[in-house]
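User: Can you fold this complex?
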Amino acid sequence: GAVVSQHPSRVICKSGTSVKIECRSLDFQATTMFWYRQFPKQSLMLMATSNEGSKATYEQGVEKDKFLINHASLTLSTLTVTSAHPEDSSFYICSAREEAASSPLHFGNGTRLTVT
Amino acid sequence: DAKTTQPTSMDCAEGRAANLPCNHSTISGNEYVYWYRQIHSQGPQYIIHGLKNNETNEMASLIITEDRKSSTLILPHATLRDTAVYYCIVRASGSARQLTFGSGTQLTVLP
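Assistant: Here's the predicted assembly.
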């Protein structure tokens, strides 16, 4: 079945630094990928929609200059958390789907970001 | 996308069938019912989806009522590894559509 790979699975960084998270569709092409964030004991919240070859679409309240998204190819989207702060500590999850209309979204295994 | 309602939590004995209900009374004709689960500290895992007919795969069965206003996910022989939060999501088809997650049902499989 379709596989989405996310890297790294866990990262610890200092306040003020930037962190890049990669999301790859391993056996299918994805023109659209989605980035979610999940705080402890809460459900997943959509942050942005990543579109191959064009600008990402951000959900209300998500700062596009802080969460940079690049979707440079049909199999890779990256999320960069810039100038990270402790409140950015969270579980970040990407997803992608094959192009058939009813195909399910497949999710990466998430990245646990801890900002100290 | 239509809103879904699920019980907050359920318990199931190991080896027994787990039946997880979901109400989606405002579902539209072109909206599919998707089920995902999330084991602690992992990304959501796709289980099954359907439009009108009942569906079965190696993981589970999905029973959709004739009026499509509710559905039930059935795990035929629950194991301890099935303990997870189960999400029922309704979504129209289309490549640009994301999934909106509700609170889900915390299923605990008991030994």
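The mean pLDDT of chain B is 93. The CA atoms of residues 43 and 110 of chain B lie 23 Å apart.
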